[in-house]
Write a structure and sequence with these properties.
- Helix 5 links the parallel strand 4 and strand 5.
- By secondary structure, the chain is of the alpha/beta class.
- It has an 8-stranded parallel β-sheet with strand order 7-6-5-4-3-2-1-8.
- The longest helix has 17 residues, at about 175-190.
- The protein contains 10 helices and 8 strands.
- About 40% of the residues lie in helices and about 15% in strands.
- Helix 6 (about 140-150) packs across helix 7.
Length: about 260
């Protein structure tokens, strides 16, 4: 859009292709395997039980040895140990309190993994009570706590869902802009280089705009797997290639 030229520096555009997380909640194992066969590696799930079942599935373990699972739903304290036991868990995108961070840290510590667990802090940028996430004002203190007091966690970025249906004719999505400014604030206050702080924002309906303003991680379900259709048993996932083409096109345009 027009505003993209106005006041937008090109360094906010990605120099690397953003990570595409295929949101596979409610999708059968065969669709995950099909998308993996097309080169997709990152998959996101919203419910711990469904994630554990899929990640533990013998067909997925045989066909998808390098799969990387992201947990992108609301994490309840009673599900932490279950989440930590998920095979090939790559990232938890939804830490939204210091208390939760402490519990995940101690659970991951007990697991005795050689690597720290990558975590993002989820911020409720839109202020909607229906959405989870930290109030923006608590972001810096929460990140500081994770980096200083949670040695088993690796803080890698900020995540938001944002309000749906933003009209881009009104200018950039303010929820994404807020996440960007929170990154600036925390990098300044905590002396973290900005390239060490990812921004997970953008879903099927707004990922192109999210990438234009600097998202490094987009979470896309329907565009890849098609709308949810119980009657159609075919596993047609041509969407992976289409979305990857779109992503590389956005990055190329930016440079």
């Amino acid at each position: 859009g027009m505003w993209r030229r106005a006041g937008m520096s090109t360094e906010s555009l990605p120099s690397v292709q953003p990570r595409l997380v295929a949101v596979s909640k409610t999708k059968p194992v065969d669709m995950v395997i099909e998308a993996y066969a097309q080169g997709q590696r990152y998959f996101g799930e919203n419910y711990v039980q469904e994630l554990l079942e899929k990640a533990s599935d013998s067909k997925i373990q045989a066909s998808c040895p390098e799969i990387k699972w992201h947990f992108i739903g609301h994490l309840q304290k009673n599900n932490i140990n279950k989440l930590v036991s998920v095979p090939n868990l790559f990232m938890l995108e939804t830490l939204d309190s210091i208390k939760l961070a402490d519990k995940v840290n101690s659970s991951w510590q007990k697991k005795g993994s050689l690597e720290r667990l990558k975590v993002m802090v989820q911020v409720n940028t839109s202020g909607e009570s229906s959405k989870h996430g930290l109030p923006p004002a608590e972001t810096v203190a929460t990140v500081a706590h994770i980096t200083q007091k949670c040695p088993s966690l690796e803080f890698v970025g900020l995540m938001t869902i944002g309000s749906f249906g933003h009209d881009l004719n009104q200018g950039p999505n303010p929820d994404f802009q807020m996440l960007i400014s929170l990154r600036e604030e925390l990098c300044e206050k905590l002396k973290i280089p900005p390239e060490k702080v990812e921004l997970s924002m953008g879903m099927s309906m707004d990922f192109e705009h999210a990438i234009e303003v600097g998202s490094t991680n987009v979470r896309i379900g329907s565009t890849i797997f098609g709308e949810r259709d119980y009657s159609d048993k075919s596993t047609n996932c041509r969407g992976v290639e289409e979305v990857q083409d779109k992503l590389s096109g956005l990055v190329v345009q930016g440079h």
